[in-house]
Amino acid sequence: MEGLLRFLVAKVIVLALASSFVSCYDPSPLQDFCVAVDDANGVFVNGKFCKDPKYVKAEDFFTSGLNIAGNTMNRVGSNVTNVNVDRIPGLNTLGVSLVRIDFTPGGQNPPHTHPRATEILVLVEGTLLVGFVTSNQDNNRLFSKVLYPGDVFVFPIGMIHFQVNIGRTNAVAFAGLGSQNPGTITIADAVFGSTPLIMPEILAKAFQLDVNVVRFLEGRFSSKYDRHY
Q: N or C: more exposed end of the chain, with fewer CB within 10 A?
């Protein structure tokens, strides 16, 4: 009996510790950073301020226009139409958002990552080659698939991924993301078009390129060129 009692006490302690760990878990960040301040003048929060519930209306949970194709006249031949908390205020704290992606033939949503969200994509029109690359710990394996209308593919949170229209007609896809503000880091734009620019010598060594090639790429991706979002 005494042994059983000790076992039950130990089990209760373990469960209590586990519960405390769960209850103390920090919420995921909803923007790139949220710097702490000591005074009451800070106006930013992790997410958005909440409207008084008695003033909430149906329009706070609604938007329209996803039946309209986005403008794909840019250097990558695609357009991403975001439906996040900035477009539907009612998404605040709900942990979900949506995008429509339009592609011209040969257009692509270039390699990028969403630091705060997993993405699940469904193809509605056309043919896409999609894929993601795993982390260094998994030897940067590429998982890719050709999608046809009705096909669905998942891109795990934080993984570098891409979509390319390999068909002869326009393509349209919709994707759900597991954050009200998933964020997007387009790899080429971030590396070669940062503000200020990363020193060419650093990138030349990292990518094993001639420094003049890096300078050329930084010129191509600097702010004077149109960027893809």
A: N
Closest CA to 78 of 119, 112, 115, 35: 112
Distance CA 21, CA 222 (A): 45
Q: How would residue 223 be classed by pLDDT, with cut points 50, 70 and 90?
A: low
Beta strand 128-133 with 142-147: parallel, antiparallel or unpaired?
antiparallel
Cis before 156? omega within 30: no
Residue 97 in tokens: 């958002």
Residue 45's pLDDT band, with cuts at 50, 70 and 90, is confident
Task: Look at the chain and count its residues.
Answer: 229
User: What residues have CB less than 8 Å from 6, skipping those under 6 apart?
Assistant: none
The secondary element (H helix, E strand) that includes residue 123 is strand 119-125
Strand 152-155's sheet: what is its strand order? 78-83, 97-103, 171-177, 119-125, 152-155
Q: What is the enclosing helix (H) or strand (E) of 204? A: helix 200-207
For residues 126 and 103, the answer to whether their CB atoms sit within 8 Å is yes
How far is 109 from 115, CA to CA, in rounded Å? Answer: 16
